[in-house]
Amino acid sequence: MPITEMLSRNAGLYGAETSLIERDPAHGRRREITWLEFENQANRFANALLAQGVKQGDKVSLLMMNCLEWLPVYFGILKTGALAVPLNFRYTAGEIKNCLETAEAKVLVYGPEFKQRIDAIQGQISSLEQLIFVGDDCPGQVTGYAGLLAAASPADPGIVIRDQDEAALYFTSGTTGIPKAIVLSHANLVSACITESRHHLQGRQDNFLCIPPLYHTGAKMHWFGSLVAGSKAVLLRGVEPRWILEAVSAERVSIVWLLVPWAQDILDAIDSGEVNLQDYQLDQWRLMHIGAQPVPPSLIRRWKQWFPQQKYDTNYGLSESTGPGCVHLGLENIHKVGAIGRPGFNWEVLIVDDQDRPVPKGKVGELLVRGPGMMQGYYKNPEATTSVLKNGWLHTGDMARLDKDGFIYLVDRKKDVVICGGENIYPVEIEEFLRTHNDIKDAAVIGMPDRRLGEVPVAVVETKSGRELTETALLEFCTALPRYKRPRQVFFDKVPRNPTGKIEKPKLRELYCSGNIAQVV
Question: Which CATH architecture has domain 1-14+22-188?
Fold first, then answer.
């Protein structure tokens, strides 16, 4: 069945019960909707889009911060038979434009935080026929979301959707930094619902705290467990430790998905006395799980000292596998913290050499996965698709090893993506920017281990002969980049390249990230 039928089922069975709660502590705001209101909003938006000429196979993009409207908009798009195209809220105007053009988006739904970025590119995307604004003070020449809903019918639009129909495009990037659009079907999304439900055993009594952005497959696919169970979820705007604990306490939250830096911040706030756990009601909090980046075992040991009764879990996944769950640690395997786990429910894994031959336990190879969440491919990019989907397996690009008990440990990445606080940063983009500086001959960007964020980008810069450049001046130059992409530190040195011209990043990591900084020779 298509994933939209799960929403309709919940509206029929639990219509008067709360489905979603939005907490915005910075503005003292709390809103909620029931399952029936969720369904009706999705139906109204679907009917409004259909009336505007949206049809099956069209692309409708979302660019919003987490809010109570996000998921009804998403499901409304799906109910038309169109493809939902969520965009990263960190994207610059130029990146938004590129993604909209790649997806051939017909409609863009956006929130007030993105007015300036959308104004900067308005009229430049040939496929884009309509802008829909979600929020107060709707700009002129833009359609208001609230007005569309008020004029539309809450009846199901009646569009026939099949399991294998395409449902969504999610953007990712390789080490080139050029976005690729991942095509996911309704069957893919439903498989993520089933996997999440089996892994974390959500029941009707559970309440899931969703903090990461919903454009990310991780956040949404973990919420899918709530969709299966017909249980509540809280969308929290803000990541302050106090706000997280207040939400858990006030809403009786039982499951929380954190990123490493947020867990670190909570523990630091407890240790410093900034928060007192006795001020919160946390006995119902049964599970904390972490994803999106490697998890330090020391962090979990420290967490268990404060929360000894909680279960812990981690999932591994990628957008090409419909988010987390293709590899899963398991609630019962905390003794294996450090591993990403074993094959998830309905998934298979292989670790192979360069010839795609399985390697023995203990030997490092590339991690391959196969299961019902495997993407359909990259949108209109068959070459990229065939480079990762081979013989029925998805090549992840991650290097891993298998221990004697069958648990998988990540070792390194083939790609040079830096994962900073759960966000992928693509070094080539930053390197190309740095090379536009008149005094720079060459540049390389690598990830330096960071206790709070997992990794932070740092730059190794080779200046032109006779030129002088200070770290302060270069960091000021980098303020033209989005904040999360700016190098945190600069090393001035020769950038080593191999005979084929590729930067020898393993050498740079050894020199600058091992604690033994030395000059490149």
Answer: 3-Layer(aba) Sandwich (3.40)
